[in-house]
Amino acid sequence: MSTELRGSEEPAPTARAVPVIQVVSAVVAFGGLRALKGLDLDVARGERLAILGPNGAGKSTLFNVIAGDIRPTEGAVLIEGRDCTFLPSRYRPRLGVVRTYQKARCLDGLTVRENLCLAVAGRRRHQWPLWRSRRDRQLDDAAVAVAEVVWLTDDLGTTAGELSHGQRRQLELGMAMAGDPEVLLLDEPASGLSRGEREQLTELLGSLAGEVTLLLIEHDMDVAFTVAQRVVVMADGEIVAAGDPDQVRSDPVVHEIYLGVEG
Ligand SMILES: Nc1ncnc2c1ncn2[C@@H]1O[C@H](COP(=O)(O)OP(=O)(O)OP(=O)(O)O)[C@@H](O)[C@H]1O
């Protein structure tokens, strides 16, 4: 079938088949310690993938490699098939790859609306009209729209410093969503949250648009197994198990290596 005859909304099969993220034989050495030992990982567009593993397994290092915060000693990182191994982290949001950090990076003295406006402005600098009042209005509209996505519409006027722990995570998620990411890397989004806040965050992550690819490092099994379609378990710089949540939950290797118990 010619390209012209194919439905306009249907992507070409080759475009659909290319993983949005490919980590190829990645090695990260810190002196004599190899935090990643030739790791391979493909992430499909729209996939929800959780990365689990005990402390020191190499999860953050893998995230840092994908986000460009660390350059692998060997191997490559491809974003939508393009070799980005040497592309600095600050350029990766332009390719749609945005990460959060374990510590929220919002400004406490600014309101939710202002924090989101800054995030929107920072991520899409080239898109804004030069006419200031129009730009301000568009920025504000975009910030309000993001607040709705992360369930903070009622808190637009609240300063970040006054938000609960869970709401701060929502704000941080909103700041990451502000740039219309294709791939969101979430570093322990549920850490430090109460049970109710974790449940709310799990629901919120599940509500994000299906086309956003989600990669999360998460120690909380309930969050990871609920949000993820596929779970990858790391230990000692390698992937030791992978599969859907049920497969991973019943994998004896996971019980032994991750949970520290046999059977
Ligand atoms: N900048 C660094 N310099 C030296 N060693 C490092 C550095 N970053 C990580 N490491 C080491 O690399 C290994 C993997 O660390 P990493 O933080 O990736 O693991 P992790 O699975 O994210 O652990 P955690 O769950 O505790 O955050 C660990 O042994 C760690 O001490």
TrEMBL record:
- Entry's PROSITE patterns? ABC_TRANSPORTER_2
Q: Which GO terms describe its molecular function?
A: ATP binding
Q: Which InterPro entries match?
A: AAA+_ATPase, ABC_AA/LPS_Transport, ABC_transporter-like_ATP-bd, BCA_ABC_TP_C, P-loop_NTPase
SMART domains xref list: AAA
Give the domain of life.
Bacteria
What the entry lists under Pfam families is as follows: ABC_tran (PF00005), BCA_ABC_TP_C (PF12399)
Which keywords annotate this record?
A: ATP-binding, Nucleotide-binding, Transport
**Per its record, how is this protein called by name?**
ABC transporter ATP-binding protein
- Report the source organism: Promicromonospora aerolata
**Classification lineage:** Bacteria, Bacillati, Actinomycetota, Actinomycetes, Micrococcales
